[in-house]
Specification:
Layout: H1 2-31, H2 45-68, H3 74-95, H4 103-122, H5 139-148
Helix pairs in contact: 1-2, 1-4, 2-3, 3-4
């Protein structure tokens, strides 16, 4: 039980950090002038805008389904999509001859792997029940009372 809480806390931290990172990176790709989007390998501006949109939606998908508990399976799906983007970013950076800077998308992608695996297997978010109000579960308390009696 305690290990699951620790993993869940680490996952939430990773989700928030990734969401902030991708919200910033994706937002910049959406609003920055075309001249600012040039990198070591020339890519079409429209493609970079598409990647920016995917990153922005991925950032939202990392947080919103988990917080609202509405379709929480979307969180590992969003993380998986961001993994694909980071694999591409790592490859493009390496093709551009920049080995050191390729570590950034590699590390960010690894964090997304942790979130995708963690939210699908280690500490998944439970689905929202219809008509229920969010409250801490009393099941552990009832079990403790039952054992004490």
């Amino acid at each position: 039980m305690r290990n699951t809480k620790r993993i869940s806390a680490l996952l939430w931290t990773a989700q928030v950090l990734l969401a902030l990172t991708f919200l910033f990176a994706g937002g910049m790709k959406l609003v920055a002038p075309a001249e600012m989007l040039k990198g070591p390998v020339p890519l079409p501006v429209l493609f970079l805008r598409f990647i920016g949109l995917c990153e922005t939606l991925g950032a939202i998908g990392l947080i919103l389904p988990s917080v609202t508990r509405i379709k929480p399976w979307l969180t590992p799906l969003a993380a998986s999509g961001l993994i694909v983007i980071m694999i591409g970013a790592t490859i493009i950076t390496l093709i551009g001859g920049q080995v050191g800077p390729a570590l950034v998308p590699l590390v960010v992608g690894s964090l997304a792997v942790f979130v995708a695996n963690g939210r699908s297997r280690l500490a998944p978010i439970s689905k929202k029940s219809r008509g229920t109000v969010y409250a801490p579960s009393l099941a552990p308390v009832a079990r403790a009372i039952g054992k004490a009696a």
